[in-house]
Amino acid sequence: MPSRRALRSSSISLFQRGARGRRFKSLPAGAAALALRGIPAGLAFAGIAIVPTTFAADAPNAVAATAAASKKPYTVPAGALGAALSDFASQAGVGVQIDTRLVEGVRTPGLNGTYTVSEGFAALLSGTNLEASESSAGVFLVRQRPASDNGVPEGAVLPTVKVSARNAPINPYGPTVGYVASTTTTAMKTDTPILETPQSVSVITREQMTQQDAQTLNAAVRYTAGVTPETRGGTATRYDLLTIRGFTADTYWNGLKLLQNGQYAVPQLDPYLMERIEVLKGPVSVLYGQAAAGGVLDQESKLPSREPLHDVGIEFGNYGHKQATFDFSGPFDQDGRYLYRLTALARSEDGQINTTRNERIAIAPSFTWRPDKDTSLTLLGLFQRDPRSTSYGSVPPEGSALFNPYGKLPIDFYDGDTGFERFSRTQESIGYQFAHNFNPDWTVRSNARYFHISQDYASVYSNGLESDFRTLDRGAISSQEQLNTFEIDNQLQGKFSTGPVHHTLLTGFDYQHIGSSWNMGFGAAPTLDILNPDYQQPIGPLDTALTRVRLNQYGLYAQDQMRYGPVILTLSGREDWTNTTTTNASDNSQIQQSARAFTKRAGLTYVFDNGIAPYVSYTESFSPQTGTDAGGKPFDPERAHQYEVGVKFQPNNYDALLTIAWFDLTRNNLLTPDANNPAFQAETGEARSRGVEVEAKASLSDSLNVTASYTYLDTKYIKDNSGLEGKYFAAVPQNQASAWAYYTQRRGPLAGLSAGAGVRYTGQTYSYDNSYKLSSFLLVDATLRYDLGRALPQLKGTEVYVNAQNLLNKHYVASCIYTTWCYFGYGRQVFAGANYHW
Questions:
Q1: Which of 620, 623, 667 is nearest to 644 (CA)?
Q2: DSSP 3-state of 593
């Protein structure tokens, strides 16, 4: 499905590659064209000139002319006109030149019959004011009919049209103008249009993150259906604590999982380094291996660009917030074979929790080499240093969610000890993305990454109030951790037909390795008088134990996306093997476990000509579990499965995507106390989440972007021996809703002024044991931006802004996830800054 996104520049961004991976030098922007080969139907593109797949520029003219004049059968699915024209040209072995402003938002019923090339073009263009004529041997030019034919007076000025700009599919992680992304690689590992994906997926674009000034992953997904962000409120800065459809989800980076050891060394990347975030909802083990049931949040890096980019910024705010950024990119050579990008950030601020601070330095270099038209290699690096981070602590229910005779606790209440508290994390990574096209139909890809975390953590945490309502019991914890991970994902993708059925076949092998160690200790800590706290009490040394873990996972997977006219059937299967060795360094004792799992997915989508696409799907996941039951039997992996039915709608006449989905998601084999032997656990637990999600994203013009969502969740423990059976999940609201709009004034005396505003509603949630409810809350966000270059030409490229999150400074309790732990939500955050772009 082509994207219909307005460029905000007078020039047209030109592709380097066709959808089947052939690279060409870009044509002049004034020509509004780009050379591509054989783009298949349904792929987004902009301003293109398609070179013949069979008859290249050096082919004999006579051969090309013969091919164009002969008749043969063609099958072109209904859909976007631009994609249909490119598909037809690919089948015919001819080229087509087209300015996509002419076909923006136009659809066609497709083609099924025997035609000459000219007749085929004429049939596809029937009912429009366009015609196709052979401008040279084997190359057809699509243009407006003369004024006498289309009713447009000669010399008349045509209205402004939007130009769609998409990166080539060999690099589908590129920028998206506006809020509406057309394709996703996360859901299918192929550049599949979202409209044709039989599972819910939401994309948060760079433009949306910038306009909302999202500085954490939680902040970036606040307006996304199905996501409950900041489940630990204002302490959610250190880790990306959120749920999807009521369950935890895995974070990915450029399609590879951010692996962790299950302790406190958890990867966290700064959103400023990202181009967009894709949220895939529900189990996805069929393509990714062991996975959390909630889904995947894939963070996609800013990648090197052919167009030069230079951007620097500074920002200040309350809580002593200070931030500086820069983002540079462009080619090293005129041909664009060597590209670079260098993105960096430095941030310092006080945490919302009293006495705490956030500090971060991050730099992400990347380099792309394109040695020939069919090959691309991108190297990606990362260094991110977090010397300090806000508290990971909590507040007791009494004084936050429940009555306390001494009154409410302040939202900056600190339960720790300043002399003992510490947190330091260093993350380093190097990886690559490689792609090579053997021919227009077959592509091989390989992505790999090494990731290292070094972390030192110590904290004093609360264990609940005593009966006097003012004495807080506390404990202490410390952990020094090292985490090293390596991943590689090798893929082979092919496109072919069996009769009238068109296939996109994906096969792959991936490998994940974790080597980690942690020296963790627990102990007692002095109590704290919440009315007269002493944060400098002596805390004795903790008893520590060193543990080492080695994990390996191997996976083989295959997927076939079969298209028959408007019907798309997707079948996927995967086999995984995992083995884990856990070593207690004190006595060198080891526990070895292995697991094997087969997972599958099936989806069916029907794409109507008007952009409506109903679908149904079934998908599974698994996650290995450590330990043994009372009989010494190792636990089987946790299993999850999901049924989903939905409808997606991508209108023809404006740039928008509307989705509605109903789902039933169940987790099995959960660990719960053994009913017959409570000293052990049994894998008999079960939990379920059912619900409805509605989401709309629209870039209604180059001035107005809108996103809105609603989520209903019914989450319960179905089987449990700890007293939770039949109860609702803690911190998961039944109802959530959000809406955000951002408008830029393009003309008149206020030209260059932008304003955005949004509301976020979170319904009532339950405490851990459902003994009480937490009140619902409504938060308001707003922003103002101004392009100074509109007022003073010498300041061209300079923008100033102010952004407020929780503008009304609503005080609320975000969640109570355990019997003694509750969390205040973020108070008002105000940021003001300036960016200079050239």
A1: 620
A2: strand
Q: What is the pLDDT of residues 190-209, one digit of tens each?
A: 989 999 999 999 999 999 99
Half-sphere CA count of 279, side-chain side, radius 13 A:
25
Tokens of residue 713, six digits: 């969740």
Question: Sign of torsion, CA 283 287 291 296?
Answer: negative
Q: For the stretch 44-74, what's the b/e string if a residue is b when 16 or more beta carbons lie within 10 angstroms of its beta carbon?
A: bbbbbbbbbbbbeeeeeeeebeebbeeeeeb
DSSP string across 203-251: EEEHHHHHHHT--SHHHHTTT-TTEE--TTGGGTTSS---EETTB--EE
Number of C-alpha atoms within 13 angstroms, CB side, residue 349? 21
Beta partners for residue 170, in sequence order: none
**Residue 24: strand, helix, or coil:** coil
CB 648 within 8 A of CB 680: no
Evaluate whether 646 touches 615 at the Cβ level (below 8 Å): yes
Residue 626: name the closest of 665, 590, 600 by CA.
590
CA quadruple 205, 211, 215, 217: dihedral sign: negative
Distance CA 804, CA 783 (A): 6
Residues 6+ apart with CB under 8 A from 631: none
Instruction: Give the pLDDT confidence of 653-674 residue by residue, as tens digits.
Output: 889 999 999 999 999 999 999 9
Q: 142 burial class (0-12, 13-18, 19+ CB within 10 angstroms)?
A: buried
Beta bridge partners of 429: 382, 451
Pairing of strands 295-301, 274-281: antiparallel
DSSP string, 489-514: EEEEEEEEEETTEEEEEEEEEEEEEE
Residue pair 81/101 in contact by the 8 Å Cβ criterion: no
Q: What is the Cα–Cα distance from 485 to 478, expressed in whole angstroms? A: 22
Could you tell me which of 639, 653, 623 has the C-alpha nearest to residue 553?
623
* Spatial contact of 326 and 312, defined as CB atoms under 8 Å apart: yes
Specify the pTM: 0.81
* Element containing residue 172 per DSSP (H, E): none
